[in-house]
Amino acid sequence: MNSCLICHGKSLTKIKKCGLTLLHCNTCDVHYLEQPPLQHDLDAYYSESYAMSERETHASEHRRLFRIPEMYWLISQLEKYGVHSGSTILDIGCDKGYFLDQCRRFGYKVQGVEPSSSARLYCDQVGLNVMSQLDQVQDEFDAITLWHVLEHFTKPHELIEDCRNRLRQNGHIFIRVPDFRSFWSRMLGSYWIWFQPNNHYVHYSKNALISLLEQHGFEIIQCQSRKPNNRTTFKAGLLADTILLENVGYKQSLKKFLGRIYEHFTGVELYLIAKKT
Question: What's the 3-state SS for 43-96?
Fold first, then answer.
């Protein structure tokens, strides 16, 4: 408890939540686990291999379908900030590569990093180049994306510096993390959809996220709180329900459907764009 994980400030307060102890920095307003697991143990956990059942495959395909409008919006953001077709993109924590798959359809040159061996196998089957660890990536990129990934890292400074080292000059980094200071997070507390202390180890405020990037020499272009789920993604979810039910007989459980509704209304994220200078 010597100094803040993000800004290195000395004013820290202990908070008990869900039987766990969080440290809150009164300077940058970040919250994080007092005793997070070791990153090495997390890497081993995420890399575990398992065979997806047919139902799990259908559930994964459902998520890909209803997130297509969101992925198209993210690609439009790349274009808006000068990362055009033909540019190189690295997606860290790319899961099964849905975002990268859409990007390459628009002419981007893509690579990914994903510790899950089953997810990498899926990527390999569709022709995506995905490594298990960031240190295996030797190339430089025009843009690096981290979509709801940074909160899973217990050493965020190391990750951001590794990203900087793999970005070309004036390259961009795009980050999305849960907004721990959003209205819904503060109102719902431990019942908030993205308060997942066993998976999310650092809970970011806008100040903390900006501070983290600025300490590594990034110029902040924008950092905003936003809802990733809108009317279009909601309609896409309903359409995905219909498509999979009619064609493969997959019906999402009531629990998952209600969870999707809950996330639609209460899920709020921080969306940051920064440039290497």
Answer: HHHHCCCCCCCHHHHHHHHHHHHHCHHHHHHHHHHHHHCCCCCCCEEEEECCCC
Length of the chain in residues, anyone? 277
Q: How far apart are CA 149 and CA 72, in angstroms?
A: 19
38-276, superfamily in CATH? Vaccinia Virus protein VP39 (3.40.50.150)
40 vs 154: CA distance, rounded Å: 10
Q: Is the dihedral of CA 162, 164, 169, 173 positive or negative?
A: positive
Residues of the chain with pLDDT under 70: 1, 39-53
Show the tokens assigned to 270. Answer: 């921080």
Domain spans of the chain, in order of start: 38-276
**Distance from C-alpha of 153 to C-alpha of 37, rounded to nearest angstrom:** 10
Residue 164 in contact with residue 217, Cβ under 8 Å? yes
Looking at residue 2, what is its pLDDT? 82
Report d(CA 109, CA 100) in Å as an integer.
9
C-alpha–C-alpha distance, residues 10 and 218, integer Å: 24
Q: What secondary structure does DSSP assign to 125-186, as a single string?
A: HTT--EESSGGG----EEEEEEES-GGG-S-HHHHHHHHHHTEEEEEEEEEEEE-TTSHHHH
DSSP character at residue 7:
T
DSSP code of residue 204: -
Question: For position 202, what pLDDT does the model report?
Answer: 97
Token pair 């102890």 is at which residue? 21
Q: For residue 217, what are the β-bridge partners? A: none
